[in-house]
Specification:
Layout: E1 15-21, H1 27-38, E2 43-45, E3 54-61, H2 68-72, E4 76-84, E5 86-88, E6 97-100, H3 107-116, E7 119-123, E8 132-133, E9 136-137, H4 138-143, E10 153-166, E11 169-176, H5 182-193, E12 197-207, E13 210-211, H6 218-223, E14 245-248, H7 250-257, E15 262-263, E16 276-282, E17 288-295, E18 299-305
Parallel strand pairs: 3-12, 14-16
Antiparallel strand pairs: 1-3, 2-3, 4-11, 4-12, 5-6, 7-10, 8-9, 10-11, 12-13, 15-18, 16-17, 17-18
């Protein structure tokens, strides 16, 4: 009887995979497949995309997982197609149709309605969402036919641009804060126009400073020779590019990695005129050491540290 060959041991892999997700894939399934293809020890995602949605899904590996929260909190950019005149249970193409209405809406009317949804707005989270109530996600209640009261949450629509309109389809570009449900935005725009709506398509094009430039599909990753796959990853600090850099000489780098606070000016190290989060590097080889808070009087307070700075 043939023996099953032993599984290859997982290896340390550090970096960020800018994945272009296909429709129909769940974010968790994609993460598991990518982790297997890279034979990585540790991986995590930076916030999920609905299965019907496509586009940018940054996946973190190794030391990059320490900074995944930064992308959870980051602003997002989407392009979406809103189907006017049809409402569904889920607010997207995956739910059964609830109502059909005639669409007699002009581009000028749409532009006027969009004005109401720019800036800070209140959104009621959908029942078909992963938000939890008493330990259960809301979608489990929804699938059981139970509707629960949900409090409206304040989100910010930084930009809302009408890209095209050919009734009944409305194409929009949306830049928004974390926690924004584009499905709900589409439904609310349809309600304001008096005809209802659901999302026909949703594509995420940006997360923080990351875009689809250089993104790869799961198929492209699978067809890349195994020894070259890790080369498709962006470095760990791709997640931190919005924070100012601080560079430390070797002696201070060691103190930083031991969690010590460092008075930069007293130590003769240039500090940006800034208070808040920074990314910290070793001056000698440019390796990322971690993140820190730059406090008053240029005090550098370590925050998240890189366990091993080799190859990250």
């Amino acid at each position: 009887m043939a023996q099953t060959p032993p599984k290859k041991p997982r290896v340390p892999v550090h970096g960020v995979l800018l994945l272009d997700k296909h429709a129909g894939d769940s974010s968790n399934d994609v993460l598991i497949k990518a982790k297997r293809l890279l034979n990585a020890q540790k991986a995590g995602h930076t916030g999920t995309l609905d299965p019907f949605a496509t586009g940018l899904l940054p996946l973190c590996f190794g030391e990059a997982t320490k900074f995944s929260q930064d992308l959870l909190d980051a602003d997002k950019t989407y392009e979406t197609v809103v189907h006017l005149g049809v409402t569904t249970v889920t607010g997207d193409t995956e739910g059964e149709v609830l109502q059909r209405m005639e669409v007699q809406v002009t581009r000028e009317q749409i532009e006027q309605v969009l004005l109401r949804f720019r800036g800070a707005i209140d959104q009621v989270p959908p029942m078909y969402s992963a938000l939890k109530r008493d330990g259960k996600p809301l979608y489990e209640y929804a699938r059981a036919g139970v509707t629960l009261e949900r409090e409206a949450r304040r989100v910010t629509i930084h930009a809302l641009e009408l890209l095209a309109y050919e009734a009944p389809l409305l194409r929009l570009r949306v830049a928004c804060s974390k926690g924004t449900y584009v499905r709900v935005l589409g439904e609310d725009i349809g309600a304001a126009l008096g005809c209802g709506a659901h999302l026909n398509a949703l594509r995420r094009t940006g997360v923080g400073n990351l875009t689809l430039d250089g993104a790869v599909t799961l198929e492209q990753l699978a067809h890349t020779p195994e020894e070259l796959r890790e080369g498709l990853l962006a470095p760990v600090d791709a997640l931190l590019s919005s924070f100012p850099p601080v560079r430390l000489p070797e002696v201070l780098a060691k103190r930083f990695l031991h969690g010590q606070r460092i008075p930069l000016e007293k130590e003769g190290v240039a500090a940006p005129p800034y208070e808040g989060r920074v990314r910290v590097y070793a001056m000698d080889n440019g390796s990322l050491l971690g993140t820190a808070q730059l406090l008053k009087y240029s005090i550098l307070a370590p925050e998240r540290l890189i366990a091993s700075i080799a190859n990250v």
